[in-house]
Amino acid sequence: MAIQPIRLFGDPVLRKPAVEVVDFDKELRQLVSDLTDTMLDAPGAGLAAPQIGVGLRVFTWYVDGEVGHLVNPTLELSEEQQEGLEGCLSLPELTYECRRALSVVAHGFDMHGEPLTVHGSELLARAIQHETDHLDGVLFIDRLDAAARKAAMKEIRESEWFGLEKPQVKISPHPTNGFGF
Hints:
9 strands
């Protein structure tokens, strides 16, 4: 088990688009293992590689008792939308209503390079979209309307963790009224 520190809002790695995985090797399998261990320990519903400081297009999820991972994802989103509480392990104790597609078909690869397609709706769709956003340098607060984003930024600036000299911290647990992705 290799639990890694989770990067917090303000760390530049969270805003940099991740690069595609080209080597499906032992290091990638270790990264998936580290992501899974860290996500489960936090606990969270998902975790993307940039959140532990690795700029590769890989994420894990834990939704409805199912643990999974996806490498180099591409998404097909439904036109039907859902509103729901969303949080993020890189933004501790922050939850806001966020609009997402109700369902998703995610294409990518497993850690061995085998093609993988994941069909998800509701919470799984939300987690997959949230984590894929991380791979593109997008945070869920970027998807909020102007008033909610302003409130979120105020809450972030007033938090105990914002602006810490070392932006890497282990976060546990996240609030029970939201989902940490």
